[in-house]
Amino acid sequence: MTAAPAILILGPSALPCxxxxxxxxxxxxxxxxxxxxxxxxRAYEDFGDTLRTLYRAGTPLxxxxxxxxxxxxxxxxxxxxxxxxxxxxxxxxxxxxVPLLGGLGxxxxxxxxxxxxxxxxxxITTSGELRxxxxxxxxxAGYVLADLEQGKGFVSDLLGGQAVRIEGDAPWLAEAKLPVxxxxxxxxxxxxxxxxxxxxELLIHPQQIAVWIERASADLLSELQQVLHSNxxxxxxxxxLLAAPALMANTALHAAAxxxxxxxxxxxxxxQLPPLHSQHANLRLLLAAAPIDAHQLGRPxxxxxxxxxxPGAAEFMLPAARQALDEAQDLLGxxxxxxxxxxxxPEQVRHCTDNREEMQRARHAFELAASGRRVVVVSSGxxxxxxxxxxxxxxLHESTDAEWQRVDLQVFPGVSAALATAAKAxxxxxxxxxxxxxxxxxxxxxxxxxxLQHAAAADLVxxxxxxISKARPWQLGSALEIVRxxxxxxxxxxxxxxxxxxxxxxxxxxLGELTSEMVDMRTLVIIGSSQTCRFPRAEGGDWVYTPRSxxxx
Length: 553
Known about the structure:
The protein is of the alpha/beta class and about 550 residues long. The chain has five domains: about 5-125, Rossmann fold, CATH 3.40.50; about 145-205, no CATH class; about 210-285; about 305-410, Cobalt-precorrin-4 Transmethylase, domain 1; about 415-545, Methyltransferase, Cobalt-precorrin-4 Transmethylase, Domain 2 (2-Layer Sandwich). The chain has 16 helices and 28 strands. The strands form six sheets. The protein has a six-stranded mixed beta sheet with strand order 3-2-1-4-5-6, sandwiched between helices. A five-stranded mixed beta sheet has the order 13-12-11-15-14, with helices on one face. A five-stranded parallel beta sheet has the order 18-17-19-16-20, with helices on both faces. Strand 14 (about 275-280) and strand 15 (about 285) form a beta hairpin. It starts with 5 loop residues before the first strand and ends in an 8-residue tail after the last strand.
């Protein structure tokens, strides 16, 4: 299982068991039915739609309800057996664990693991695994089945009473209860070599080949395929691609690894390399005596991801940001934001710093990522709006460290405070607008005054970030004086405090009514244009919007 599972429950009685399961899979999020279950990471409105969406995305599913409900919900989207994610039904009290789908995706292994954690027995029903104690169609890590369709017929023959012999090194089969006969016609063959399996053969490739790449060209993939062909080696026997750190940012190298679905590792010390098998121009084939664990060789390319949490509610966070958080080894940010980023695993390292230490935080993030770690820098809202993305890029821009330049840097957007508040209010940013921070920590107040004057004169809707604080109690009042020189007292204003978080408040009023005392550091202030208007909501309050067209003059 590579992806974190999703745990789905229908009612509050299943929540204690769901939490026990989450302790086994700390990255898993619990999905609860909206209006019935509180205190979960995600709420859903429709059980069937949610289940099908997660299934299509390849997410392993642990569903705490009757197995029949799960089967009926997924029936319409069931596809090829070799593409199914694991799907398990678990009794809401944890008394039963039933693997339903994903026999080739490790569902039985996952069921045994989960059952052991819950101290019950897994209801394994797969005939081959029950008879032989292993699933021949799903070899353990380090071994790959050559042909799934042929394998199905082979296992059927064994279940029908045929004997089998084993050729090659397959330690896990020594523990299996196979009908072994050294003179049997049928054979399980463990070999890295490429060839068509015979009708009476189950061919399994051990991943004991690594490829050292001296130079990565645009034709790297075809070169690699030619080298394997000339050495009569199966592509399934490849364990990883290896290269020197100087090639860490090479796009052709990463493209080849992605297409082959192989880990890519970078070696500083040639003594770590497996023995040489053959040399071919830019490529060296390395052949180990047993399957290679790529994670024991060198280091991966470090990754630094700058994310925005959005306004705070989990449903407003970009899925890619959630995935980056789940995969991170290190998280850096203001402590409040890192706490908002949960659930986190115990082994994930939190580097909490003061919100005014942005450049130090950015440099620390690059140092960690340059060592090969997966690092996430956490911002609230959008990381590019008065947040950490600019600081990270500035740190990289000023650095001469080649290791920093090789880091896989990516920035994922988030829902900014202005957009979250505007969405709650309706559409006050429906026409041209600007975002202005009233903090003069990083720019002179004179610059802020000039921008306020021009934005007000241009009749732009304005969203104020960092409007007021204990250290800056006067600046919002001064900003409003500038705006009032260009805007009438009837100009509409929206105040959004803690939007997307518990206790959020939203208020619409006029510029004439607005005073500094109504605002604190956690409030987003939107000053409308001359065209911004409002009308009553049916449930109370107002809708506020700025029309997309101006009256013709």
